[in-house]
């Protein structure tokens, strides 16, 4: 498979939308640390928020390669935070509904997700638990026809301004280590949910990250997502998509930073020559060009397996590890090749270097990716 004429047309349409509706506003949204809700609605109306969703719920029933186009193009918009916010909504939280939701849940929740009226967030991480997901402390217990949820979640992207949280909580204390979690759909406005803090981050300024306290939050039993006690496995499976999207963002934003750098070193002069004429710089350009292409090809390989429904945990982990680590190398080199300008707030590579620092941490750290790859290699 891969990209077809249909993907190319979609890319052109999306690129025009990003140039018109996103690029001119980025400075303002970065400063305000907020993306207006209107953007989601406009993206919903243009069909960008429901790429793989069923048509009956406002989706387009396209394939995962179309989602790769979405991530590649958003990565080039100039704000990692805007791209992150939209992809958390479309690919890092809501897809659990299509995979696991009952028809009642799908009918209830998906139409307002694809229209952009409801913005989604994924609430797994807690102040004491990140990588060790099976050890989450937030609890949920049954009370009649409700679940009662208690705990604290942190680093929740879209958590301040979003509407619907996909919450992971412990529903059992006994039994196997990986058989204790479940997933719940919780509206931010449910009584007992409090956003206690908007976190100050190194990068990704346009999108918010929240610390959230859930105190005796009552949700109906119908808001359990998937099977009680299978939350860990559901999450682990769903995280493959999140990792592929993070990897895609990483090589595509790297490519944009490379292009910005090529253009800069062909304009800037030192010692009577263009910077692009110094062999030492040309060789560094050659290295990062090669690394970005290698990252892209590794991601495409994992995407082709994922899109075909094949088991690809190892390939996805390799793609996520490599593409996000390469983005950090590219960030270092592109800032360096810009000289002092590269260290200024107004330069695109400076923001790229701050924003994409995140991706070796979020969606599973590089260390966790190495754990998964080695586990698959050694058994
Ligand atoms: C800006 C931002 C946005 C985020 N958005 C979300 C979100 O929307 N939803 C959400 O749920 N979470 C979100 N996260 C949280 C993110 O997924 C976690 O930060 C990440 O999973 C790592 O967990 P931790 O921070 O608790 O680090 P820890 O798990 O405490 O790890 C600390 C260090 O130890 C290493 N380490 C841990 N265990 C091992 C091991 N077994 N072997 C080797 N090394 C190990 C890690 O790799 C890391 O280097 C976000 C984080 C940030 C910074």
Question: What string gives the helices and strands in order?
Answer: HHHHHHHEEEEEEEEHEEHHHH
Runs in which pLDDT lies below 50 for 5 or more consecutive residues are none
Strand content: 15-25%
Q: What's the number of domains? A: 3
Q: Helix/strand-derived class?
A: alpha+beta
According to CATH, the homologous superfamily of the largest domain is Butyryl-CoA Dehydrogenase, subunit A, domain 3
| Main sheet: strands, sense, barrel | 4 strands, mixed
Specify the CATH architecture of the largest domain.
Up-down Bundle
CA distance, first residue to last residue: 30 Å
Bound molecules: flavin-adenine dinucleotide
Order of strands in the sheet with the most strands? 1-4-5-8
What does this structure look like?
The protein is α+β, with helices and mostly antiparallel strands and 379 residues long. It has three domains: 5-114, Acyl-CoA dehydrogenase/oxidase, N-terminal domain (Butyryl-Coa Dehydrogenase, subunit A, domain 1, Orthogonal Bundle), CATH 1.10.540; 120-228, Butyryl-CoA Dehydrogenase, subunit A, domain 2; 233-378, Butyryl-CoA Dehydrogenase, subunit A, domain 3, CATH 1.20.140. Helices cover 50% and strands 16% of the residues. It has helices spanning 5-22, 26-32, 37-45, 64-75, 80-91, 95-100, 103-114, 231-267, 279-307, 313-338, 348-355, 366-378, and strands at residues 120-123, 139-143, 146-157, 164-170, 181-187, 193-198, 209-220, 224-225, 269-270, 273-274. It has a four-stranded mixed beta sheet. Strands 2-3-7-6 form a four-stranded antiparallel beta sheet, with helices on one face. Helix 4 (64-75) runs antiparallel to helix 5. The protein is globular and about 80 Å long. The structure holds flavin-adenine dinucleotide (FAD). Flavin-adenine dinucleotide binds next to strand 1, strand 3 and helix 12.
